[in-house]
Each structure stands twice: as C-alpha cells, then as structure tokens.
Write a structure and sequence with these properties.
It comes from Pieris macdunnoughi. GO terms for molecular function: alanyl aminopeptidase activity; metalloaminopeptidase activity; peptide binding; zinc ion binding. It is a lipid-anchor; GPI-anchor. This protein is an alpha+beta fold and 930 residues long. Among the domains are: 117 residues, Neutral Protease Domain 2 (Neutral Protease, domain 2, Orthogonal Bundle); 109 residues, Neutral Protease, domain 2, CATH 1.10.390.10. It is built from 26 helices and 28 strands. Helix 12 runs parallel beside helix 14. 51% of the residues are buried. The C terminus is likely disordered.
C-alpha cells in the first residue's frame, strides 16, 4: 500500500520495553488452532443502496488440534445463519452457537455440538448482512459527478490491514493464506464488476432476480487483505490491441477520463516487464487491472490483480498534471507493481513485519522506475528521501522496523515512515553491501508468509553463491537495523595531521541533544580521498561494530590528501561528523571546485553539517561556510538538501534580527539560478529542473525578491483575466501562493471557485495546497473549517491537506492552525482520512513548533485528548515533544553563532566592496591626473 505524497511520515510510538507485549496484547491474535484452505464468497452489492449489503461465505477449514470451537474474525455485521459440518458427514449440522466480540478483537467464535478432530476437514457456511464502511476501510460507497448524468455511486474496497473481516467472516491475519472463489451480484446499471481474477466460464451459482451475476476464477493462495471489489459504471483502456506486457492489462476510471489513463497504461506495462526481468519471476495472474477511484484512503493498494488507486495517483492530464504529480504516479504504479511479488507472492507472517512489504516496495518504487525512466534520476532523488526520513527517525520514541503490533490501532500505526522510507533506505544500504546482483536472487522466496530471518537466510544463500562475501552474516548485520529504532552518527577523526589512519566511532543520532541512547549497529563504511576522488565503488571497505571500541582504519595516501569523505554516494543509512580540519577542507573544496565531489556527497555534506550543527555536534559556522558554495551549484539534488536546512532556519529565526540577514543571504545565494531558471520551462530542461525551479522561485518569492513577487502577481492576474492564460502546472502553486500572501479576497475567491468547479484531481491538489497561503484571517478560518464542515466540497481523503498546507505556509498561519487543531481535534479525527490524516498533521507540527509557548500548548492538547489518541497519534505527539525541546535548546545554544556569522559575512562583504571602490577611485584619479 502506498500513502500519497509520502504521506506516511508520522513517527510511530515504540511500545514500552519494560512490558511483556505478547502477554498484554497476545489475545488479539487468532489462536492458530485451525486454518482455512478455501473460501467461496457470494456478495450482493447495489451501489444505489448505501447502507448495507448481504452475502454468504463457505469456508473449508482444517483444525490443528481436537477442538469444539472455531475462531475467526467478523466486524460490524449481522450473522443470519451458520451451518458447520465435516467433509465426510456433510448431512449433519454440528453448529451449536456463536459469539461475536463487541471489542476490537473482532473474534467470531463458533462452537460445535461435538468435538472436531484434528486435521479432519470441516465446512462452515455463514449467511450475513454487513454495513458499508463510512471511513473507506472495508467495502464502501464512493460518489462522483458525471457530466450530463449527475451524481453517480460506485462500490469499492480497502481491506488492508484488518478490514476483510468487515466484508465477510474470515481469518483476517496475513499468514492465514487460502484460495478465494468470488461471486458478485450487481444491478445492470453498474456493468463494470471486477475482483482479483477474471470471470469464469464454468458457472454454478444460482441467478438472483434484478441482478447480474459475476462468477470469478479461483485466486492463487493469498492473504485475505489482498482481496478487492469494484462495482461501477467505469470504462477502461487496455493493452489488448498493442501489448507491451504479455498479460491483459487494463486501466479503469470514471467515464470520460480514459485519455488521462494513457501514461498509466504505457508506464505500468513497461515497469512490469522490467520488474519481471529483474526478479526473474513471472507475474502469476492472468490479468492486471488498475482502477482510479474518486475516494480512497491510501494512495493505492496492491490487491492482487485489481490494484486500486486514488485518482491523483493514477491519472495524468496534459497541461494540468505537474511534473511532481506525474513522478508520483510513476513511482506509485511501480510501488504497487513490486507488491505483486513482495507482498502478494511473499507476505509478512504478521503486521509486526509490515516493513517486509512496504520497505521493499518503497525501495523498488524508485529503483524500478529508474529501470524504465532513467532520465528521471530516481536513485539520485532517493538521497533526499533518506535525508527526509532521518528527521523522523531521530527521536527516541520512534519504533524499530520490526515492531510488535496486535490491536487494529497498533497495526494501522505501523504503516508509517519507518515501514516505508526508513526500511527502503536500509534496503538500499543492504543492496550496496551485498552487491546489487545478489539482491534479486535473494528475493526468490516461495509463496509463503515469512519473517525477516527467512529473508536473511535467502539473501545469505544468494550471497554465498556469488563471488562476493561479507565478514559478517547478513542476519547478524540486519538484526540490529531491524529491531532498534533510530540510526547512528559516525564521528571520524584523523589520528594525527600526518597520520595514515582515521578512527571511526558511532553513537545514536537524536535531534534533542538532552537525550541519549546506547544503541549501536553493524555499520558498513567506505571512503574516498581528494587525491583519488573515485566515488563509484560503494561496497563496504570496513565495518564499525557494536559493543566494540572505535574502528581504526589505515588508509594509504591519507597524509597527502587535503580531504576525505566517508559513505560514498550516501549509500549507508547514517550521518558522518568529521574533525574540524576535514570539515574546513571540504568547505574549501566545495567553494573552489565542487564538481570534484560526487553530487550525492555534496548533498550529504550539506545535510549532515546543518543537522549536526542543529543538534549541537558542530559549530554553525561550518555548515554556513559550506552553504556559500551553492552560489555555483547547478544540480537539483544539493539544493533539495539545503532547502530543508533553510526551511528550519526560517522557522527558528523568524521574528529575530538575524532573519532579515538570512533572507538577504538566500536571495544572493539563489540569484544566479533565479536568473537562469526563471518562470518559464525550457525544452532543454531535464526532468528534475521543475523541482529545482520551484525551490529557487519559492525561496525568492518567500524571502523578499520583489521581482519574483511582482511576476507571480502578473501571472495570476493574467489568469484571472483570461483562463486560457493559465500558468504552467509546475509553477502554479508558487504563483497562486504569492497571490494569496497579501490577503487578497478576490484572488482567494477566484481560486476557491476553481477548486469547487474542478473535476481533475491534479488541479484540485494544486489549488488546495495554494489556498492555505492566504494571510487573510477570515479566509484562513473559513479554509480551516472546511476540515470539519460536513457540507465541505473537499473530499475526506484530502481534508488533512488543508491543515498541513496551512501549517507550512507561514508562521502566522501555523499558529492559527495549531489553535484550530487544539480546539477541534475531536471533530477533526473522524473527518480526515483514517490511515494517516491526523498523523500527517501532527508530523507537520513536529517540524514547525519551536517555542516554550508551543510546548505548553501541546501539553494542554495532550491532556485534553489523550483518551482518544490512536497509537499513531500518540507517536506523533511524542515526536512533537522531542522536536520542540530540541528547537527550544537551539535558540539558547545556536542563535548568537548564526546571527554573528551573518553579521560578519555582510561586514566582510561591505569591507571588500569598499576596498574595491577605493581601488577603482585610485585608478580613476590616476587616469584623470595622467
């Protein structure tokens, strides 16, 4: 499952280590005394009837022990009848009674009149009536406006992680795999009915008056959460006339939107071919459907054979869809395609190992997209993803990758930045130390539910069969990376100025300098010297071990080198802190000949130095001196790194005397690129230039470049005067935001009206993020209240964006958003999409709140709502607390240094300018006298 725009960036709270978690929560797991082998499910689905649906399920079950009780899951349904018999005595009903839990275990306990014998096949028939979900988890009704028709309903589903039980009684844990046989009855008005498999020809189910019958082929053995349903009037485009991928491939969407599915059809096929070749493992099913639905809780879901997407994650409109959205479409398609192998063929034994699904999909959404579209530079961009997740993983309360979860709330909470971005980053590191060619062989695990040790054994076997070897077993290396939260910072020092060796010590990196932890890892290291700046070989040259003294490494030629760099191309998941001599040498190298250093290491140096300074491990003079080189940097990736550092400085310096100097510095540093990139895209632009242009324009418009502000006002006014003069999609957010920062009511109303009128999800996303930029207090209040207004035109899945965008738009808007959330959280919680909406809001606050007053407000917030917080929300609050404490410490420890550096920088420049003027005047006088 992919949550849109990297939305799963909330931290997750580690359960207290001093508790026996399995004792406290173990009763949430099925007892394991029986398992299913086959389900035969019949559902009667009428999208016009929006309250309930009916169905029946036949389940073949094998008891593992002698028992008089079968335990499975059922949720929010009425059981109408149950019949239970053995396969060898089908005429005798052994059913006695049942109970259905009223708590969140969701257990359906079926008791029998006599003991069931171990390993003797039994058959259970259950008839039921169930409710459509009102939160997009389970089987639910979605709606859209169809031109010339009006409002149209459809029914679709989202069953991951614990909501198959909401559709029919089942064993709803991933390890209970079985074959599923599906039959759906739907009214003729909804002719597009799809599930995981194609329709079958050997029909056996009875007809139902007033409904069409759709009987589907049996699935492969799979987990229940991978089932999916679509009952609609959708239309499709397909590869049936021109197949790139040798399997029936269709893209379904609302009538009239088929032209927007062209990219998904083309890229989706090419990507499947590339992944088949890479994994050397053929896609197993006879068809692959992609479906774009208007309302969807996640970004997309990897249901085997019927992948469901939010519209903005699948459909692209020429002239409307931005480069960023198109890239997201590509990476999300690749993410879900990879799940056809890692997640569907191979599933986690339990949601404790969510990262086995999502970490691999996260890594391959970038690696696999680059296989098809190398010009997108996805693996270069991955470094920015690594640096982004460092922010989430640098708090003491963060959970590890392998994180025991039991309750539904805990399970949903584990779909977070750790399971996705951190796990993907660690897998990227593993790819480099086991070598790329060993990784696909190690992924060929049988169609089972697995645990991390199963994966590590497979990888070790692949490694042992290759020409490459490691001094440590893969399982030993990975054990600490997967079972400990956080990551290390390596402190690297030359033993002496003329020595040939360095020492490398590790410590857990935490944002709050007042906190510490003794966690340690097996850390792969490599290095490069200024005398031989070859960054291409990224395999490990040494290992920093846990529970060992600092590693001492002899590096031939080190005394002759001006500088050295650890962690080539930032492939390792850690930060690096050098001695001051090396930091200054790196700053000098960047300012004199930055291209000698690999662009990914330039980005690493920028990001590491600013974050080391932020946490008190390095004087701020060093990263600020390093940043001076950026006036000559023309590649997007290092600018992506500095953009995050500048965003933080903007927050902590706001309202101080240093802020004006900081803004002036940004304008001067970006001046060459502002002139070069401008507002107009060029045919020679590479894919990432759109991101680069946005960074430069945003920094200038936000920090007082009058030309930038005036130009955006002109572009917006041209658009208002003539809608054919729409700004290019990639700069629309900047243009619209700049036009709203002055508080103009007409501009807001113009853009709000366009949002209401738009039927394109890409355009709606741009407008929703832009409208948050208004500085008008009344309009800002109106916009925030769209989150809790039941008549709001903003879909539930998008409402959290209103608050997140408002938080990020300005310090004043952030303050109002904070007060709004504190006052209305109980109303917000059920009205934003349930998987990550509130977590995203809390995570946005964690990056922006900086003061003691903020800390006090958060404590009042916790006191007020602690009884209704989910596990993920508790995690978000923990992250806020640590980050606010760090920012309070920042002001006390770093402000004077930063203010002094900027003041000194401009005094020096002023002296240099004065000296130049004196020289020029002297020359002029000499010429005049001559």
């Amino acid at each position: 499952m992919y949550s849109l725009f990297l939305a799963l960036l909330g931290t997750a709270l580690a359960l207290p280590l001093n508790q026996d978690i399995s004792t406290q929560y173990g009763h949430y797991r099925l007892p394991g005394e029986s398992h299913p082998t086959l389900y035969d499910v019949q559902l009667v689905i009428d999208p016009g009837k929006t309250d309930t649906f009916t169905g029946s399920v036949y389940i073949r079950i094998i008891p593992e022990i002698n028992t008089q009780e079968i335990v499975m899951h059922a949720m929010e349904m009425t059981i109408n009848s149950i019949r239970l018999n053995t396969a060898i005595n089908a005429g005798v009903n052994l059913y006695d009674n049942y109970t259905m839990a009223t708590d969140d275990t969701h257990f359906l306990r079926i008791r029998t009149t006599q003991q069931l014998v171990a390993l003797q096949l039994i058959e259970v028939n259950i008839e039921f009536e169930s409710k459509y979900a009102d939160n997009m988890f389970g089987l639910y009704v979605s709606t859209f406006e169809q031109p010339g028709v009006g409002r149209v309903n459809l029914v679709t589903s989202q069953l991951q992680p614990t909501f198959a039980r909401r559709v029919f009684p089942c064993f709803d844990e991933p390890k209970y795999k079985a074959v599923f046989r599906m039959t759906v009855y739907a009214p003729p008005a909804y002719p597009t009915v799809r599930t995981n498999m194609p329709l079958r020809t050997d029909l056996s189910k009875p007809a139902l008056q007033g409904f069409n019958k759709y009987e589907f082929q049996d699935t492969l053995v799979q987990s229940s959460y991978l089932l999916a349903f679509l009952v609609s009037n959708f239309e499709y485009i397909s590869n049936e006339q021109n197949a790139i991928f040798n399997t029936t491939f269709r893209v379904y969407s609302r009538p009239g939107t088929q032209s927007t599915a062209a990219f998904a059809l083309d890229f989706g096929q090419k990507n499947m071919v590339a992944l088949e070749e890479y994994t050397n493992f053929k896609y197993a099913l006879p068809k692959l459907d992609k479906v774009a639905v208007p309302d969807f809780a996640a970004g997309a879901m990897e249901n085997w054979g019927l992948v469901i997407y939010r519209e903005v994650a699948l459909l692209a409109t020429e002239g409307v869809t931005t480069t960023s959205t198109l890239q997201n479409i590509g990476r999300i398609i690749c993410h879900e395609n990879m799940h056809m192998w890692f997640g569907n063929e191979v599933s986690p034994d339990s949601w404790t190992y969510t990262w086995l699904n999502e970490g691999f999909a996260n890594f391959f959404e970038n690696f696999g997209t680059e296989l098809v579209l190398p010009e997108w530079r996805m693996m270069d961009q991955y470094v920015l993803l690594v640096q982004g997740v460092f922010q989430n993983d640098a708090v003491l309360s963060v959970n590890p990758m392998t994180h025991p979860v039991y309750t539904p709330s805990q399970v949903i909470g584990t779909f977070n930045a750790v399971a996705y971005q951190k796990s993907g980053s660690v897998i990227r590191m593993m790819q480099h130390f086991v070598l790329c060619r060993s990784l696909p062989k190690g992924l060929n695990i049988s169609r089972n539910a697995v645990t991390p040790p199963d994966l590590f054994i497979s990888l070790q076997q692949a490694l042992d069969q290759s020409s490459h070897s490691l001094p440590i077993q893969v399982a030993t290396i990975m054990q600490r990376w997967t079972t400990q939260g956080g990551f290390p910072v390596l402190t690297v020092e030359r033993q002496a100025a003329s020595a040939q060796s360095i020492s490398i010590a590790q410590r857990r990196f935490l944002t709050d300098p007042a906190l510490s932890a003794n966690d340690a890892w097996h850390v792969p290291v490599n290095w490069v010297l200024s005398t031989t700046p070859d960054f291409s070989d990224t395999k490990a040259q040494g290992w920093v071990l846990p529970n060992s003294p600092a590693l001492s490494v002899d590096i031939p030629g080190l005394p002759d080198a001006d500088w050295y760099i650890i962690n080539k191309q930032q492939t390792g998941y850690y930060r690096v802190n050098y001695d001051l001599q090396n930091w200054r040498a790196l700053a000098n190298a960047l300012q004199t000949s930055h291209s000698v250093i690999h662009l990914l290491n330039r980005a690493q140096i920028v990001d590491d130095s600013f974050n080391l300074a932020r946490t008190g491990r390095l004087d701020y003079e060093i990263p600020l001196e390093i940043s001076r080189y950026l006036v000559n940097e023309t590649d997007y990736i290092p600018w992506g790194s500095i953009n995050n550092a500048f965003a933080y400085l903007d927050v902590v310096l706001a309202g101080t005397p240093a802020h004006a100097l900081f803004q002036r510095y940004i304008r001067e540093l970006t001046a060459p690129l502002y002139e070069e990139l401008g507002f107009e895209a060029k045919t020679s632009d590479e894919h990432v230039t759109a991101y680069h242009r946005n960074i430069i324009l945003n920094l200038n418009c936000r920090h007082g470049n009058e030309h930038c502000v005036n130009r955006t006002q002109e572009l917006l006014q041209q658009f208002k005067n003539n809608e054919n003069n729409r700004p290019k999609p990639d700069i629309q957010t900047i243009v619209f935001c700049s036009g709203l920062r002055g508080g103009d009511v007409d501009n807001f109303n113009f853009l709000w009206d366009r949002f209401i009128a738009s039927q394109d999800s890409s355009e709606q996303s741009i407008l929703l993020n832009s409208l948050a930029c208004t500085s008008n207090p009344e309009l800002r209040s109106f916009f925030l209240n769209q989150v809790i207004d039941d008549t709001s035109p903003v879909r539930e899945q998008d409402r959290h964006t209103i608050i997140v965008a408002t938080i990020n738009s300005s310090p004043e808007s952030m303050e109002e958003a904070l007060d709004f959330v504190i006052e209305n959280f109980a109303a917000i919680q059920p009205r934003v999409q349930g998987l990550t909406g509130t977590s995203n809001i809390l995570n946005a606050f964690a990056r922006r709140l900086t003061s003691q007053a903020h800390s006090q407000k958060i404590e009042a917030f916790v006191t007020r709502y602690q009884n209704i917080f989910s596990a993920a929300e508790l995690a978000g609050v923990a992250g806020i607390r640590e980050n606010v404490a760090s920012s309070i410490a920042w002001s006390e420890n770093n402000y004077e240094t930063v203010n002094s550096w900027f003041s000194s920088y401009y005094r020096s420049n002023a002296v240099a300018i004065s000296s130049s003027l004196i020289i020029l005047m002297s020359i002029f006088v000499s010429i005049f006298n001559y």
